[in-house]
Amino acid sequence: MAPVDKAVVLLSGGIDSAVSLWWARARGWDLRPLTFHYFRRPPQEIVATRKLIELSGLSRLQEIDLPFLQEVDDMKKGIENPVLAESPEGYIPARNMVFYAVAGFYAEPIGARWVIGGHNGTDPEAFPDASPKFFNFFNSMYRLGLWSWPKTPVQILLPLSGKSKVDVVKLGLELGVPFEHTWSCYWDRDMHCGTCASCLERKEAFRGLGLKDPIAYESVAGASGL
Hints:
There is one protein chain. By secondary structure, the chain is α/β, with parallel strands linked by helices. It has 2 domains: 6-177, HUPs (Rossmann fold), CATH 3.40.50; 184-226, no CATH class. Helices cover 35% and strands 11% of the residues. Strand 2 (30-38), helix 2 and strand 3 (62-66) form a beta-alpha-beta unit. Helix 1 (15-25) packs across helix 5 (165-175) and helix 5 packs across helix 6 (197-208). The longest helix is centred in the middle third of the chain and has 16 residues, at 95-110.
């Protein structure tokens, strides 16, 4: 019997990472989920991440504290680069450089074949470190920087690359992803705000499929998700 591939799966608690987790689970791989705690990460994201792990049937979640990582909006007093005033909502400098370097640190000792990220086809429009080109270069860094790579190569895999948010939700429905337990909002609230960029993208995706979003929003207009 051929050995089962091992994969480190990065999880945020949102729709994209949840769909990526269910996609990888459907392949029968030995999954090692990994999540990161950074400055002012919404607590509901953490709740969602842990719930998704429970519902997926996995027993392990590696949680890493990265308190130095901050969104630009939280760094106002320490920013000397005026250009960053124009950066998109939710932008964290070099976030994916840090995340995938740490993922490589965990992947090599266990002989993981894959590091799986949940970046979709529209993410690169706002975030340069979410593009296929970025990850192609990062795979080259794994090849050059991980000592065991020639015998046990590890590669970043993006199952949602090129897919719209509508496509992602459609795939998740086919895979049975429990979207009611995901968290998309940028802010620390009891329910989704319905107005941040991530909430709007989520609502538009369900609306595009003619479906009701299973989560609740603060705004009355967004409560139905239609």
